[in-house]
Amino acid sequence: MPISKVSNLQDSFTLRDIFSRERISSFLTALALLGAAYVFEYFANVYAFAYSLRPTSNYVGDIILDTIPVIDLNFIIIEGALITIVLGTLLVFSKPRYILFSLKALAVFIIIRAVFISLTHVGIHPDNIIPGLGFFDGIYLYLNFQTGLFFSGHTGLPFLFALIFWEKPFVRYILLSLSFVFGVAVLFAHIHYSIDVFAAPFMAYGIFKIARYFFPRDYELIASAFRA
Questions:
Q1: d(CA 155, CA 176)
Q2: Exposed, middle or buried: residue 158 (CB in 10 Å: 0-12, 13-18, 19+)?
């Protein structure tokens, strides 16, 4: 399909269509799921943090972390992550076709990750670079981005959205690059174990498939713009 045809199809669907009688219930459902996901994540993080204070939550050996040097890459992990969230939000809402599925897939991602960080509690590596006392560091800690190890949200979330925007090569390559950069950064900062990072793309792919299964109509809204 010519690029111009795809663009016209996408442009024909606007934010007004999201609030139409046909789709407003889906949009409200997406917001409700996202809200529930953040509540679920909050309590999972509180539980994980409390559990991490127990003497049984010890750090473990990691062949990669034990080999690579510790480098303070908080400007990528913190400021970079927050900027990516803001730009990602603008990207999704600039493409109305993607809003419903993206919000629901994000909610599924948050819920599944919250379940995983609630299950097994391993202490963070002792050489980890902790956030500073700056404004952005405070936001980062307030949002509990430093809590929970498996699996890496820094790595998994950009990968998930790369799958959602797969038919847009420029966006896809940027998101895949961000996933790689964040993965490298959290390893060098020793705030994630290697299994957290390397498992994240596989977890994101599984979450993408789950979201497609449970929300086929929302995904069809995206896919229909690229179908010949």
A1: 9
A2: buried
Question: 194 with 62: CB under 8 angstroms?
Answer: yes
HSE (side-chain half, CA atoms, 13 Å) at 148? 26
Q: Which residue has the tokens 């420029």?
A: 170
What 3-state DSSP class applies to 209? helix
Determine the 3-state secondary structure of 98 from DSSP: helix
Helices and strands: H and E segment counts in the chain:
11, 0
Rounded to 5 degrees, what are φ and ψ at 3?
Answer: -60, -40
What letter does residue 227 receive in the DSSP assignment?
Answer: -
Distances (CA, A) of 143 to 38, 43, 77, 92: 10, 12, 13, 21
Closest to 176 in 3D by CA, of 201, 150, 208: 201
Predicted TM-score (pTM) of this structure: 0.89
Q: Which one-letter DSSP state was computed for residue 14? A: -
CA distances from 195 to 43, 150, 173, 219 (A): 24, 8, 23, 30
Identify whether 151 is preceded by a cis peptide bond (ω within 30 of 0): yes
Domain boundaries, the chain: 3-223
Beta carbons of 193 and 125 less than 8 angstroms apart: yes
pLDDT digits (tens, 9 = 90+) for 93-148: 999 999 999 999 999 999 999 999 888 888 888 888 888 767 777 777 766 666 67
CB-based contact 179:227 (threshold 8 Å)? no
For the chain, the C-alpha Rg in angstroms (whole number) is 19
